[in-house]
Amino acid sequence: MACIQGYTEVVKLLLEYKADVNVTDENELTPLCNASIPGHTEIVKLLLEHGVANVDHTDKDNDTPLGMACVKGSTQVVELLLKHGANVNHINKQIRTPLVMACIAGHTEIVELLLEHGADFNVADDDNDAPLGIACHQGHTEIVELLLKHGADLSHTNTKECTPFAMACIGGSKEAVELLLKKGGVDVNVTDGLKNTPLGTACLRGYTQVAELLLKHGVANINHTNIQKRTPLGMACIEGYTEVVKLLLEYKADVNVTDENEVRDTPLGMACVKGCKEVVELLLKHGAKVNHTNINGHTPLVMACKRGRKEVVELLLKQDGVDVNATDERNNTPLGIACIKGHTEIVKLLLKQDKNNIKNTNTKTPTGIPLCMARAKGQPKRVDINHKNAENRTPLGSACHEGRTEIVKLLLEQDGVNVNATDKDSCTALQIAFMKQHTEIFELLLKHKGVDVNVTDKDNRTPLGIACHEGRTEIVKLLLEQDRVCVNATDKDSHTALQIAFEKQPQKQHTEIVELLLKHKGVDVNVTDKDNLTILHSACERGHTETVELLMKREDIDVTKCNKDGLNALDIAVERGKKDAAMAIVKSDKWKDALRNYKVEDTSDKSFDKKKGGRFRRMWCCNRKGNREANKQFITPMRRLIKKMPDVAKVVFENCCTEDNPPDHPDHEITFNYEFLDDFDLNHMTTKNWHPPLEYSSENHCLNILADSPSADLLKHPLAATLLDQKWNKIGRIVYYTNLFFYFLFVILLTSFALTVHPPNSNICMEVFGNDNETSIDCFTEERFVSQIYIPIASICLIVYSAILIIREVFQLVLFRKEYLTSPVNYIEVLLFIFTIIFSSVRSNQCYCTHLWQWQVGVIAVFLSWITLIFSIRKLPVVGIYVVMFIKIFNNFIKVVVLALLLISAFAVPFYMMFYDPQDRAEGIRTPFITPWRTTVKAITMTVGELDMDSLLRQNNQVNAPDVQYPVVSFSLIIVFVILMPILFLNLLIGLAVGDTDEIQKSADTYRLTLR
Fold this sequence. Notes:
Elements: H1 2-5, H2 8-16, H3 31-36, H4 41-49, H5 65-72, H6 75-83, H7 98-105, H8 108-116, H9 131-138, H10 141-149, H11 164-171, H12 174-183, H13 198-205, H14 208-216, H15 232-239, H16 242-250, H17 267-274, H18 277-285, H19 300-307, H20 310-317, H21 334-341, H22 344-352, H23 371-374, H24 395-402, H25 405-412, H26 429-435, H27 439-447, H28 463-470, H29 473-480, H30 497-503, H31 508-519, H32 535-542, H33 545-552, H34 569-575, H35 579-586, H36 591-595, E1 599-602, H37 604-607, H38 612-621, H39 627-630, E2 632-635, H40 637-644, H41 646-655, E3 657-659, E4 670-672, H42 702-708, H43 718-756, H44 763-770, H45 785-816, H46 818-821, H47 824-840, H48 852-872, H49 879-915, H50 918-923, H51 932-943, H52 949-953, H53 967-994, H54 997-1011
Antiparallel strand pairs: 1-2, 3-4
Helix pairs in contact: 2-4, 4-6, 5-6, 5-7, 6-8, 7-8, 7-9, 8-10, 9-10, 9-11, 11-13, 13-14, 13-15, 15-16, 15-17, 16-18, 17-18, 17-19, 19-20, 19-21, 20-22, 21-22, 21-24, 22-25, 24-25, 24-26, 25-27, 26-27, 28-29, 28-30, 29-31, 30-31, 32-34, 33-35, 34-35, 34-40, 35-41, 40-41, 42-54, 43-45, ...
């Protein structure tokens, strides 16, 4: 540290204390090295006197103290080291001797010392640069003189094949060049590895004085080209060295020599790239070709425009014959290039060339010469403002693509600009600006009167359609403000802008666009696409309620339009289950038009031709004219609503009821419109687009559909109820009461017959069935003469009536099949009529006695007849509702009958086991527990509270016994039975029967109306 800082006294002190003078630090530097670098002569002397082991010790870079001292220029230190035997030709890692390092640093005295001590002046470094070449390059003239005196080699070349003279030119040292020229023996035309002469090297670096020296000394070829075929003039132009260019031109340098690099430019082209106006001006004055094209097809003007060299462009445009429409490799003209690059000032310059001339390149000059020929004949230059490049874009299109707002303004001010020219993607400038989201440019174009705002792209979409597709709300607003915009133009899918925007919902921006379009007065909301769908259809299909509501507010909306399947918007909403959309339609002012749609489907082939029953029915009922109409399924929105959306159907019902005055007004009236509920007979209707009168199947009537649907409660709505009453009073009541009257007569006849005919256990029947010798038996006494006449007549009437009704049931089965089989009443009626025939078939020769089995069949027939009568009075206005309620309660009971059977079985079997007494059976005593069946019946009667404890606890053979058998189990079983059955289970049944009486009554009333 003391050696580095130059603390001589400290060094002396340390040496007195025997400090090690040969110790090295982390960089392998000894104290001598550290003292030599900054040039502390006294310390170096002290160290050398105190036994430095190796004066040529090297550090990690293989530098010796002598080399380090040469770099820093410490002459005295160098002198001391040389006296102590330092190696004057030591080479470090860079293959540099101390002499080379002194030459680089320019320390003349040290160079002189080294030479005096035998330094080798021809040893080269790793670049093969000898000391003389290095000194020439650095411009150290005195060192050059020293080396020349000692005989340095002037012809030595480095790795780049540069001689010392070439190195002097590279360094730009005029003095060194003059010295070498005076010395003589140098070749001024020598070339290096790149075939550059000293003149070319000097021009490349802008050394005007060196170049002048060389030219005065007699350069053999001023137009010599290097390996790139580039002349000194070209190299000077590349860097924009004006003075060098001026000098070369004075010596008649060729201004049009082209190089052979990647682009093959002339000096003028190179100067244009650099943007040096003075150089360009000099070249043009000396005859440079203004329209020369390089390998890329670029003229100087094209290159100047690419680099944005305004002054150069201005200068070139002043030249006669300059081609202002020359193109580059992408077929861009200078104007197109300037537009792409955004060089606004250059665009202005180019546009001035065409300001007072014709508007396009296809017209002729006033002299009749085509424009393309006019340039060659000196006519005024005209910029082709509509020239198209490789992308088929005009300058305006390119400016829009790159977002050059100011340039677009300039171009739009020009006469003849084609604002509607399309590129290779069939996009105009307006569409390009939109797609690149250059809103300001888009606004500028919209303001131009010549812009076609309805131009279409490859998908046949207008800018408005594209904006709607992309969700560009602000653009849509701008376009809708234009009177010229066609808001109803369709794309290749026949979608308008409104439909396109709707397709992209539910994104927020697209919803806003839909609202904007719907508010526009010119939008046609009834346009259909290729699937014959309007936007209302699509909105209903997707359930976009807000859009449906907006559409329904428009007066021009057509709700009657149908898609290819014959469905209008309301039909579609119902079929897709979009309740809110359907509700929006029926709540609008156009609800009637929406409901006036119909579809007729022929069901004859589907229902009647597959089975024999179907063919039979056709033979029986379809031979008359008009029966084909009866086989047609009539479908309307009202029917769809009834089946699938009762809440919406209810709103329609409300719409069909019109009140003239408030309910409390004395003249309060309600007018009912049955057009949609009773739509088969519309002879009185004059509404257009509504079906003609049709023959129909009653099953397809709205009331029948309503009765069979989950929305049957709507039958109680005043609209349905009044219509039903009208039809009931007109036809249904007569038919019903007639049938009920005849059936009632049948029941009375059957009952009286059963009471009149002889039972099998009567005396006369027992005598008849026990008469084996065929003796004459008086069947009827005088007091039973009436019975003798009545029984055969009643029997015949019952059989005939039952047979007729059985035939009716068969026809019903054929007609309705599955529907018939699902009704339990039909099974009861069939059994009733069959059993009635069996029961009524008694013979006179047996005194009209019934057999035992026949009598039991008769009992069942009588029972079923009265049960059927109960079912028949369900439609009566007062009694009917209670019959229905009874049936519903019975249905509730059936749901728990399995539980009842299991509970009864759970107690009946143990009761039989506990209370059965074999002695009672032996003695013929009939107790409740003598058989399992009697035990089960007993358990059932006990369930309803008939416990009869005597029959339970007092058996005949245990009269004197203190208690029953198995008392613990018996009493426990009875207690559990009482708790579970008469108390809990019976209360459960009562709760099911009366727990929801109000609801049962409501549903019963609805069901009664359904039966009507």
